[in-house]
Amino acid sequence: MKNIFKNIIRDQFHATENHNSEEYKTRFHNYVNSVEYNNREYDKVESSKYLLSIIIEHLNFSEAIKSIESTNHNLDNSFIELIYHSIENNLSLKHSSIITDRVHEDDKVFYKGEEIHPEGPLKVKINELPILVNPWNGDRVLDNMFTINSDNIFDGDSYSWNIQNIYLYPMDIVVCQGGNHSQFAARIKNQGKTLIKEVRNYSNLYNEIYFDGYDFRKKINKSVIELEYSREQVFYSGVIFELGRYILDDKYDVKSIF
Known about the structure:
Order of helices and strands: HHHEEEEHEEHEEEEH
Distance between the termini: 68 Å
Structural class: alpha/beta
Number of strands: 10
Radius of gyration: 20 Å
Number of helices: 6
Strand order of the largest sheet: 2-1-8-5-6-4
Largest sheet: 6 strands, mixed
């Protein structure tokens, strides 16, 4: 009898899992179809970039709303890049980096194997690239909406000590690890400039893996890469990853941002 109930529960679980899988894959293919088969045959790279911008804004506002509605601090957006790190570890791979921060001569020994951009941080307009932020504190979200204004336009140089923005290639997005709330407000108001202090190149992953809408899989045998993150986090990291493939296939030069 125990085995009967066990089999029933197992079958229900698999049925639910398969249903969820199909829902996520449908969502994913809608993004692919928007790039591949849009009515006016828009450029695929430009289409991918627009979709990436929409996704990043959705994630930013979603986290900000959760921080206002709940006292629990959310850092969901920070997991997007961590998923790529986890995949790298699984495959024993390592992304390459270009350090665009100011590095003291004595500290360069800590950056062996990494290229250092001699001119320091890259300055970009606050909405020039999609920036994934972590507005995790509802009070600070509101505070910065007031304090970042026409009399106090956001300036990355002034907040350089707190700004930690990293550009991801070929995803063509920036992930923020410092200065989340001020940059969130500045982006809403479309005022100011910010800094990019590192460029991370994940192009080596694209020959090894793909995202099928539900899981990341190894190309060599289609096996699933197990990840201990929420389904939504894996989903959006996967969509961002595959939209980046269009940019990579277009031979986009990462150094063109300098």
